[in-house]
Amino acid sequence: MRLRDMKWSFLLNRYIVTFASIAIAAAAWNLFVVFNDDGIVAGRVVDSDNRPIEGATVTIYQKTLYVAQPRGNTTTDAKGEFLFTGHKYYRIWLEANRGGFGKSPKKEYRLYFKGQNMTLAEPLCIKLPPPP
Question: What pTM did the predictor assign?
Answer without folding.
Answer: 0.77
